[in-house]
Specification:
The chain is an alpha/beta fold. It has 2 domains: about 230 residues, 3-Layer(aba) Sandwich (Rossmann fold); about 170 residues, Rossmann fold. The protein is about 40% helix and about 20% strand. The radius of gyration is 22 Å and the shape is globular. The relative contact order is 0.13.
C-alpha cells in the first residue's frame, strides 16, 4: 500500500513544462477530485440593457460552440456555464460577480463588456483572486494603472491599436483626416490617440467633433464636417452601437462622399454590420480580425460558426472563442486543477495560441498582444457585408506601441506565420 501511494505521489508531483515555465503538477487526490466535478465557467455579460447584443451573440454563442466541439469537456472534466446578466450597469455587475463567486463558486469569469462596470468590479476580482478573461471592455486602466494578477484581457486596451491605425492610414494615402467621436471616456481613449499619432507622422486634422452618447440627429455635426469635406482625405467616426448605426445612415443621406476610415469596432460584424449592411460598404478600418483571414484556425472557426448560427463571426466572437482556447491550455497544463489560481495564472501568462485572429499571447500586464489588419467593408464571398483584409498587417501589437515600432513591423499578410 505504502509503495503504491509513493508511486502515485511521484507520478503527480512531476513538474510540467509550459512554454519554458515549470509548474508543479497537482497531487493525485486533488486531480481525482477535480475530475469528478464540473468546471464552472461564469459568464458576466449583458443580456439586457444597452449592450444586450453582446451577451448571447458575441460571448455565449462562441463559447458554447467551443464546448460543443470538445464534447463539453476541458482537461477531461465536464463544463457547466453559469450566466449572470449584468444589464450593462456597473452596480449590477458588482452584484452579479459576487453571486458567481460566492454562491456559484465558479472557476473563472469570462465576459465584461461595459468598461465602467469592469473598473467597478476590478477590486473585488483582484481581492478574491478570481481568474477573469475580458472579451470586450477596453478601459486601458485594467491592464495599466489598475492591472491585476487575476485579470487577463483578450480584446484590446483603448489606444493600443492607434499607432498602427495611423501608419495604416498613411499607407493608403490619407494625408488629412477629420474626426467625430462620442463624448465619453471610451471613445476619447480611441479617437484622441488616433489623431495624435496621425499628427506625429505629418497628418493634418482640421476638425475633431464630440457628440453626446445617444445622439439621435447628427445633422448639425454633419453640416460642420461638410465644411471640411473637400479638405480631407477621410473622416473617422469613433461612434459605437446605435450612435454608429445612426451616423452611417445619416452620413449617406446627407450626401457626404468623403471616404470613412475607422477603428474596426465601429464596423464590427455582429453589433453593426449585421444591422447597417450596404451603407457601410467602402469603409476602411484598422482592426484585429476579419472572418476572411486566411489561416487554418479562422477558416475552421468561420465554417463552424456559420453552420451553427447562420451568420458570420465578428471580432468579439473571436475574442470569446480565443478566451476558451487560452483557458483550455491552462487547464490542461494544471491537469484539470482549475482552482489552483497561481498555477492557472502562470500557465496563461506563458501560453501562446493559434487563434482565428492569428498568433496571440499576453504581455507582462496580462493584455493581449495581437495583429492589426487593414480591412475594407465589402459584400463578401458569402454575400454578406463584412470586413475583408486588404493585405498589409502590423503583427504583434502590444500596449504602448510607437509610430516607429508600427512602421518597422508593417508587413504583408502573406508573410505571417499562421
Amino acid at each position: 500500500m505504502l509503495k503504491a501511494a509513493v508511486n502515485i505521489l511521484r507520478k503527480w508531483s512531476t513538474p510540467l513544462a509550459i512554454s519554458g515555465l515549470l509548474i508543479g503538477a497537482v497531487t493525485s487526490d486533488v486531480s481525482a477530485q477535480a475530475n469528478n466535478t464540473p468546471i464552472k465557467i461564469g459568464l458576466l455579460v449583458p443580456n439586457t440593457g444597452v449592450f444586450a447584443t453582446f451577451g448571447p451573440k458575441t460571448i455565449e454563442a462562441p463559447i458554447r460552440l467551443f464546448l460543443e466541439q470538445r464534447g463539453n469537456k476541458i482537461a477531461g472534466r465536464s463544463v457547466e456555464l453559469v450566466i449572470a446578466d449584468d444589464q450593462s450597469r456597473p452596480n449590477i455587475m458588482v452584484e452579479k460577480a459576487r453571486e458567481l463567486v460566492e454562491n456559484q463558486k465558479v472557476d473563472v469569469i469570462i465576459g465584461l463588456v461595459n468598461s465602467a462596470g469592469a473598473l467597478a468590479v476590478r477590486d473585488y476580482l483582484d481581492r478574491h483572486k478570481v481568474l477573469t478573461l475580458i472579451t470586450v471592455a477596453g478601459a486601458r486602466e485594467l491592464t495599466q494603472s489598475r492591472k491585476s494578477d487575476a485579470i487577463f484581457r483578450l480584446s484590446w486596451a483603448n489606444g493600443q491599436m492607434e499607432a498602427a491605425g495611423a501608419v495604416l492610414a498613411q499607407y493608403i494615402g490619407i494625408k488629412s483626416m477629420a474626426g467625430i467621436g462620442g463624448d465619453y471616456v471610451g471613445a476619447r481613449q480611441l479617437l484622441e490617440p488616433l489623431m495624435e499619432n496621425f499628427q506625429k507622422i505629418g497628418g493634418k486634422t482640421p476638425m475633431v467633433l464630440w457628440s453626446p452618447l445617444g445622439t439621435a440627429d447628427f445633422s448639425s455635426y454633419l453640416a460642420q464636417l461638410k465644411q471640411v469635406a473637400g479638405q480631407v482625405d477621410a473622416i473617422s467616426p469613433m461612434l459605437f452601437g446605435a450612435d454608429g448605426v445612426r451616423f452611417f445612415n445619416q452620413y449617406r443621406e446627407f450626401g457626404l462622399k468623403t471616404p470613412l476610415y475607422v477603428f474596426g469596432d465601429v464596423t464590427e460584424q455582429t453589433t453593426f454590420l449585421d444591422q447597417v449592411g450596404d451603407a457601410a460598404i467602402g469603409t476602411k478600418a484598422y482592426w484585429n480580425y476579419s472572418p476572411y483571414l486566411k489561416n487554418p484556425a479562422n477558416e475552421a472557426f468561420r465554417t463552424a460558426y456559420m453552420k451553427a448560427f447562420k451568420r458570420l463571426p465578428g471580432a468579439f466572437s473571436f475574442h470569446s472563442y480565443a478566451a476558451m482556447q487560452f483557458y483550455e491550455k491552462a487547464a490542461e497544463a494544471t491537469k484539470g486543477d482549475t482552482k489552483n489560481f497561481e498555477a492557472m495564472k502562470k500557465a496563461l501568462e506563458m501560453t501562446k495560441i493559434d487563434s482565428p485572429g492569428g498568433l496571440l499571447s499576453f504581455d507582462k500586464d496580462h493584455n493581449v498582444i495581437h495583429n492589426v489588419y487593414l480591412t475594407e467593408v465589402v459584400k463578401g464571398p458569402d454575400g454578406i457585408v463584412t470586413q475583408v483584409p486588404l493585405g498589409p498587417v502590423i503583427p504583434a501589437v502590444g500596449q504602448g506601441q510607437t509610430i516607429e515600432e508600427a512602421r518597422k513591423a508593417l508587413t504583408d499578410i502573406s508573410k505571417l506565420k499562421n
